Amino acid sequence: MTATGVMKSDVRPLAGIFRQARALLLVALVPALLAAAFHPWRPAWSRDGIMAAEVAWNTVKEWQGLVLVVDARPAADFARDHRSPCAPTCGKRT
Q1: What would the pLDDT profile of 7-17 be if each residue is shown by its tens digit?
Q2: pTM, 2 dp
Q3: For the chain, which terminal residue's Cβ has fewer other Cβ atoms within 10 angstroms, N or C?
């Protein structure tokens, strides 16, 4: 027994478990980083790449013709914050 009251035989299995966990993490991290860097279908890591399809509302107002606006919020958010029957500029042509 040591001065802290923990037996040496109790500490050794924990050290081995942590050593194995670190080794496993390192082994898994290397291919994960390589895949993130070089995979042809890797995800976009920046917000600019994710939001490339979004268009500002002022830009949409300038478009000629009919525009379909899809509100993709969850139903609870839509019900709480929906303006009925439509936004104040709905149906107006400029």
Answers
A1: 655 667 788 89
A2: 0.36
A3: C
Q: Do the domain assignments include residue 92?
A: no
Between 26 and 75, residue with greater pLDDT: 26
Residue 55 in any domain: the answer is yes
Is residue 87 domain-resident?
no
Q: How far apart are the first and last CA of the chain?
A: 86
**Beta-carbon-side half-sphere exposure of residue 17 (alpha carbons within 13 Å):** 5
In contact, 24 and 30? CB cutoff 8 Å = no
Mean pLDDT of all residues in 51-60: 72
Q: Is residue 89, in this structure, part of any structural domain at all? A: no
Query: In whole numbers, what is the pLDDT of the chain averaged over residues?
Result: 75
Calpha distance 92→73 (Å, rounded): 24
